[in-house]
TrEMBL record, chains A, B:
InterPro entries: Aa-tRNA-synt_II (IPR004364), aa-tRNA-synth_II (IPR006195), aa-tRNA-synth_II/BPL/LPL (IPR045864), Asp-tRNA-ligase_1 (IPR004524), Asp-tRNA-ligase_1_N (IPR047089), Asp/Asn-tRNA-synth_IIb (IPR002312), AspRS_core (IPR047090), GAD-like_sf (IPR004115). Keywords: Aminoacyl-tRNA synthetase, ATP-binding, Cytoplasm, Ligase, Nucleotide-binding, Protein biosynthesis. The record marks G90 as: Important for tRNA non-discrimination. It comes from the Bacteria. NCBIfam families: aspS_bact, PRK00476.1. It comes from Blautia hansenii DSM 20583. GO terms for cellular component: cytoplasm. This is Aspartate--tRNA(Asp/Asn) ligase. GO terms for molecular function: aspartate-tRNA ligase activity; aspartate-tRNA(Asn) ligase activity; ATP binding; catalytic activity, acting on a protein; nucleic acid binding; transferase activity.
Amino acid sequence: MAESMKGLKRSHRCTEVTKAEIGSTVTLMGWVQKSRNKGGIVFVDLRDRSGIMQIIFENGDIDEQGFEKAGRLRSEFVIAVKGRVEARSGAVNPNLPTGEIEVRAIELRILSEAETPPFPIEENSKTRDEVRLKYRYLDLRRPDLQKNMMLRSQVSTLVRQFLAKEGFLEIETPTLIKSTPEGARDYLVPSRVHPGSFYALPQSPQIFKQLLMCSGYDRYFQIARCYRDEDLRADRQPEFTQIDMELSFVDVEDVLDVNERMLAFLFKEVLGVEVQLPIERMTWIDAMNRFGSDKPDLRFGMELTDVSEVVKDCEFAVFKGALENGGSVRGINAKGQGAMPRKKIDKLVEFAKGYGAKGLAYIAIGEDGTVKSSFAKFMKEEEMQALIQAMKGENGDLLLLAADKTKLVWDVLGALRLELAKQMDLLDKNEYRFVWITEFPLLEWSEEDERFTAMHHPFTMPMEEDLQYIDTEPGRVRAKAYDIVLNGNEIGGGSVRIFQDDVQEKMFEALGFTKEEAQKQFGFLLDAFKYGVPPHAGLAYGLDRLVMLMAKVDSIRDVIAFPKVKDASCLMSEAPDIVDEKQLEELGIAIVAQKEETTEE
Amino acid sequence: MAESMKGLKRSHRCTEVTKAEIGSTVTLMGWVQKSRNKGGIVFVDLRDRSGIMQIIFENGDIDEQGFEKAGRLRSEFVIAVKGRVEARSGAVNPNLPTGEIEVRAIELRILSEAETPPFPIEENSKTRDEVRLKYRYLDLRRPDLQKNMMLRSQVSTLVRQFLAKEGFLEIETPTLIKSTPEGARDYLVPSRVHPGSFYALPQSPQIFKQLLMCSGYDRYFQIARCYRDEDLRADRQPEFTQIDMELSFVDVEDVLDVNERMLAFLFKEVLGVEVQLPIERMTWIDAMNRFGSDKPDLRFGMELTDVSEVVKDCEFAVFKGALENGGSVRGINAKGQGAMPRKKIDKLVEFAKGYGAKGLAYIAIGEDGTVKSSFAKFMKEEEMQALIQAMKGENGDLLLLAADKTKLVWDVLGALRLELAKQMDLLDKNEYRFVWITEFPLLEWSEEDERFTAMHHPFTMPMEEDLQYIDTEPGRVRAKAYDIVLNGNEIGGGSVRIFQDDVQEKMFEALGFTKEEAQKQFGFLLDAFKYGVPPHAGLAYGLDRLVMLMAKVDSIRDVIAFPKVKDASCLMSEAPDIVDEKQLEELGIAIVAQKEETTEE
């Protein structure tokens, strides 16, 4: 059935053939996109990764047998065609790069026949995700996914090119490492040689890259596979890829500088987008106050306003209570949304409750200036007017207010702001707004653990000027940590690392670690630090998310060749799967009967 | 203790400062290689990854406090130095790139102090491997290891650059995959979400890269981490790195062509070595006959001679027996080794026995032409002379002969040839001899399984002209498989893949698989093949070994930043290690008490 390609050699990919080739003979190979017989002529759209070329089979140009074969062609057959390039006889197709030419076949081989695929191979597939993922090898034929994979490959290539030029060495770090209890849940790998012992797959190369700095490699990078055994969200995968880097003898500005030049290079080369440098810097506290988020989307305004001062004397219990508890009252102005139906507002209130708010107060200002408000009856007229004024409310605006502990108010209004932007269609995928968030808090209070935990990680350097507060007011200490945010997504983050014994010791104290605990958890890194350690800092990007934004798609699965679904399984290969008992025996492990408690989801 | 680098910015790495900078001020940062006080002047060799710069601290140039600090410097302290570049006041050091200049310090900061390291940081360390590996972060400071890591980084960068230009897309394939019982032993990863199920870490991206060809990606590559849970040999690691590629619409010649151009580019750019193209091609049978190995080292001759015909009528039972059993008698001529002492020859015999030989026959020809031989008494004078002539024996030569089944004879003499080359010092690490080995047997008989097994893998394409023998004489069928061999090391290998249903079916038959078994093991690849599959072929290199040869080192551990030792453990981090009981509970697995049988080594 399958013919050999012996004696034929592909001369071009489909869209590599141009008008300049008219009159010459080419050999193309690819998949039949579609095939139709019109008036005794067979027209075939031939597809390869470059695009489509129209092939004409006419008896006489091609021999009888070849013409007969052309008549049998169906979608997804793999063929080799030799033919003459001609100007298109029929209508020119301005949508195709090869729309002005076609190839008149003189030879045809059917290299591989194909069953009818379970869904058509075309852009913007409407097929169910489950089917697409089961037949991922077919889904990956679709031009939009191919474009994403090519873009991803290009991004990796350019990142590597840029970093190599900047003196970064690509160094591979191990992926069968030791499990550390800090951070997310590790994937474990049982050891056969040491039964009862386990490797862990790395959540990041963090410790190894810091060791490489101790070893004098000066500038390291790696596009590294990382692993987290967490319950998956839409934009998470059990294995993901980081652009990971670390630099010696640098401070915050050096890291930001090389990274924003890298981003500018990348966006220019791949998308033709000019990133204005320097990229805007915003402190964490400013980001929270203005946008209720440490990853603010700057493509639109709708900033938060702190109205605590304005409402501090009003009689509305919700506001009053929040302020008395040390919280705040803040709001956002949804411009032009004053006529939003009550039902829709109610949905926003529900949305806010999903983020922990007890409710959401609103003021709808009609086009005629009439004010409807959920809490008007508790407010004096002048209080209401002052509030509207503070929030720059105008006719036709909808003002939404939250009152609670400040952190909660930020979260609620930050999320609400994004939700409104979606509803108001303010998010343009072709606009790229970067911002550096800096001066993160070093520590955050964990209600669960009843202690401070590291906001980034325990090796993050405090800001020199705040070090004085580490014993007395640990929550006040800011860190030399930074995130790079693009369109409301944290695409990367990092920090300057502690390289001094005494600071590290203070940090562990603040985290409530004894010396022994610290040694147990981070022993070999602390040991390495005894032998001369340079000041160093680093940053890591989530490559998947970065590519997702560059490809302007909504799901991280659309930029990963063989992604897993929410339960961390692969619908195509059916991994994970049961294994032979013998394999487990060799590893010295056994499967235990499931207890109720362990099946919690 | 640790000073801040605030206000200082490194201007150069040590050896980036040249004579052109004489008179200007530079700021350098790095490690103290050594420090000595001579006549009230402190001389410091400052080291960074680029090399060494001599720093002069003299009171007056630097302030009192700075000079006092300089006096305290010890090996491996990390310092920042600002100073003026001057021509060397003392003796010029022609061994250093910076040997004609020095830096007269005007400012010094001690960024990090250091304890005395457990071994000196210098080239050609004589330190025990165990200590080096425990303190790998210090070992990695040694200039020879740093050179290796930089070379490795350069190799990866250049490979990617070359392949990107040739139209290869870098596509990441998953590493949490399904376990397949074929091949080496898998590392397993227990699934938490699906208790009782496991992922496997990939031994190679083989199936995924073939799927990508089915998906139309045309040319794929990846520098991919791979895993094999096998007992380690000197040149094996549990995780290793492959340069992996696959191409569509190609045959053997296309793969060889792009790869030898890549190798030539790489060796030219990295080592300045010109690789003559095309690289020599040798069929598998020629390689075995001439060198007793499918990875022949062509840096020296000492080829095998088949003397079966010559000795077929002699009375020596060993020769006779081998020939009667369908085996052969072959020998090598160790030129100029005729005077080898008997003891040394005995050692060679023992060496041969280690490869399964029952013995080794020899003929030592004295400088005066006298012949000593272990089997002279069984031979007629003219038979002996014919044998010597057939092996081109001359005065002063040592002829070594093995008689047994041909495969064993090849193995023994192939190994002996290498051993002699080592003893005779014929192996020059600066010489690079490449050869393609082609036309491997498709199948090899497994005594253990009592069936044919795939020599490469079950998807390897048979040569068209041999397909006729697949039912009747499966052992005669040659494959479209190829290895690239460098100085006796297989650095890469691959094959054209089967893409036709009927050929694949025949292959599975030859391997003794039922259709059901084939479907169970390779199901989703076979499914993918139903929907139109292009002819495709691929190749994979062992990056670690390639870099090892390019770096001219003997151990693969010297080109891996954080290698593991023979028991697959990391001496630095002590991975693998026991984990919390809670982690195992979450995974639904338990450690079972060790049975005797499972501890076999």
